[in-house]
Amino acid sequence: MPDGVIAGFLAPHAPHFLYGENPPQNEARSRGGWEVIRWAYEAARADLERLRPDVLVVHSPHWITPVGHHVLAVPHLRGKSVDPIFPNLFRYHYDITVDAQLAEAIVEEAGAHGLLARAMRNPAFRVDYGTIVTLHMLRPDWDLPVVGLSSHSWPYWDGPTPDEEIREVDVLGKATRAAIERLGRRAVVLASNSLSHRHFSEEPDPPDDMSQEHHYNDLGYRWDVRMIELLRAGRTREVFELMPEFTREALPETKSGSVTWMFSAMDYPEVPGKLYGYGAAIGTGNAVMGFDLTDSIVAGR
Ligand SMILES: [Fe+2]
Known about the structure:
- The chain has 301 residues and is of the alpha/beta class.
- The chain has a single domain (4-300), classed as 3-Layer(aba) Sandwich (Protocatechuate 4,5-dioxygenase, Chain B), CATH 3.40.830.10.
- Helix content is 38%, strand content 23%.
- The protein has nine helices and ten strands.
- The strands form three sheets. The chain has a six-stranded mixed sheet, sandwiched between helices. A two-stranded parallel sheet has the order 3-6. It has a two-stranded antiparallel ribbon with strand order 4-5.
- Strand 4 and strand 5 (91-97) form a beta hairpin.
- Helix 3 (100-112) packs across helix 5 and helix 6 (218-232) packs antiparallel against helix 7 (236-250).
- The chain is globular.
- The mean pLDDT is 94.
- Fe (ii) ion is lined by residues 13, 61-62, 130, 194, 253.
């Protein structure tokens, strides 16, 4: 089996999906809900299992670090994570094994690529819900080591600008790939990222009333469908040509860089993405998609 970056998943992190699953780690209880996305994750999990990775590497928009790129590098992290916006849905007890060697290698490579990067070695660090929801939905057994990367962005500061941010995460993706290849890891990269991201400011009562769940507006829905169709067709170059316009009009979390980072780590493959499912969470657009590189890696050797 080849090593290196073998696949990527677009894996959105609305806490609603995990809340709908009712895993024992979450204190909040639901009656289910958001099934279309949860069934999509079920199918993605089976494909992830077939890929047999050594490690999952995730970039999260909700671990925000205004100064530089930070990488989870504590071998074992245990604690409770609470979503600051939806504490009623997400209070999750986590127990995470980190591939600290790969984390340190990513920090080294990021530095060598000219980025400001730091290993996060504080054992009491509280892991964000973006990292946790994506990892839990794709691998609820938590039996694979992971590495988490922060989002070097801050919506209320002048810098980095969206353009600077995209350039930075492109380089971060290259550094991530270099570290994975140097250590010979068989890695799957995960973009913890929704698509269109305008959302309702009030929750239905109860929050899992699915008669109230729908896309916030038609503009966001149409942008999402356009981007999904391009990704399904493997038209990666066009996706990134459209990315600035998409980011401006649909306000997706792509401005935090996770999608660009993932595609850069995969070396912007023109492979058809597999769509597992698409749906709304409190109005935002969420697609679960997989990009399997194993055929192209074998063909390229
Ligand atoms: Fe988010």
